[in-house]
Model the fold of this input.
Amino acid sequence: MFAWLFIAFWRAEHSGAYFVTSPSVRVLSAVLMLTAFWLFAAALIRKPPILLTAETVLREQGAIFGVLRITRHPFLWSLVLWSAIHMLNNADPAGLSLFGYFLLLALFGTWPIDKRRARLIGGERWQQVLAETSNLPFAAIISGRQKILPGIREMGWLVPFVAIAAWAFVLTFHENFFGLPVFY
Done:
């Protein structure tokens, strides 16, 4: 299904944008994309990767570290940022449809995942996980349930390295791969 969406997006006529963003919005978008890359890298690089093994990992005491101090769903929130930023900068019907689909999928996907985890992890341990974490990024930190500096330290050097390298690579070659420059 995802392949079909991307094929339809590339074949669609990209005209009739509802609005055009300014150069300053594009710069801000590029900076915010670094956060999306950071969350994505943290979801994949964590040992074990939270994206693939959350139910097993979260059953253990002391499992809340690194990016989990920021959000229980780092991959989906990276997708939310990616989608929202691309919707802002691709405001034609094709862009809004493709990126809007991913935005809705990621935003509403966190609840069924939490529901499944509640069922698999269960009871008191799941209540501890909820008390120590948040779905919404930084909510646990803002509410005082977590601290950001230990989370950043626990992610180690590889997460920011991969995030910054991938971000710089995509900024540099975005037009070559996707046909659209980041800045124009």
About this structure: Residues 71 and 137 are 5 Å apart (CA to CA). Residues 21-178 form one domain. The longest helix spans residues 93-121. The mean pLDDT is 86.
